[in-house]
Predict the 3D structure of the following.
Amino acid sequence: MVENTESRLGNRQGVANIFVGVLVFGSIWGFLEATLGGYLHMIIFPNKGAIMAGIGVAIMSSALAIYRKPSILPWIGVVAALFKLLDVWFFAQPITSIHIVNPAMAIIFESLVFSAVIALMLNKIPRSAVASVGAGVLAGIISAVGWVYFAIYVMNAPAYARVVFTAPGYISNQGVVQAVFFGIFVPLGYLIGEKLATQRFPVLARKPLYFGASAAIIVFCWVIGAMAILML
């Protein structure tokens, strides 16, 4: 009886830790999209979408190395995509605007595709850098294909002067660049996650401090991210 109670308590704590981890990693990704991504967009930096997508997949790879659960990756993407809703509140844009839906769906496509690819290759990635690179390249090109067809045929992107493109042209240019960035950032992010997973932080081992520090990171990301959106 005591063992069953302790097991249930451990499971609840594990679920709570994963839930907090999803919020933390998703908030960090969304924060970088709102700050660095917003700045790169403002200065019209080349391949900014591929760069930010690469950073996002690195963040998901770090979370994967720590939690070893591909199923949490789409939820990290959802949290990051929610940052796009700040534009709805601050700039009174409709939630169906192409400037809200398209970048949010790009993030979600990336997280869904990466989760699916990782689920098939999870056991190979820790043992092989080639597998990590291959998973990144595959996820990069598939997510680019999925997003561009969504943008064109669902959101009717060519109706907007600033985002006129064709699917083959986008895939052969930006899609390939994104695949390259994914191939670089997946093993890098996974390595960082492994390093973090092996670290021991005695202070954060205490649950109240762990959850308090996590809450502080989440609040920081959302507040500073919101301020960046207002200023950019």
